[in-house]
Q: What sequence folds into this?
């Protein structure tokens, strides 16, 4: 967990929205970039990405 004051968090949200992304995606990309650079500099193999399961809401059934 990280602690960021509410004003900073709200401004970060605005900055990300204007960049066409979300805070979550922005942080995820930052972490991946940092780890990728670390692994490359230290000759470590990057972990293999795990498959992502996307759960979709089922369409509402018609009652006609």
A:
């Amino acid at each position: 967990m990280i602690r960021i004051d509410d004003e900073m968090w709200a401004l970060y949200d605005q900055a990300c929205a204007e960049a066409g992304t979300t805070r979550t995606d922005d942080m995820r990309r930052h972490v991946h970039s940092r780890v990728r650079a670390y692994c490359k500099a230290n000759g470590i193999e990057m972990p293999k990405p795990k498959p992502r399961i996307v759960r979709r809401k089922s369409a509402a059934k018609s009652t006609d």
Summary: The CA atoms of residues 33 and 57 lie 32 Å apart. The radius of gyration is 18 Å. Residues 23-42 form the longest helix (20 residues).
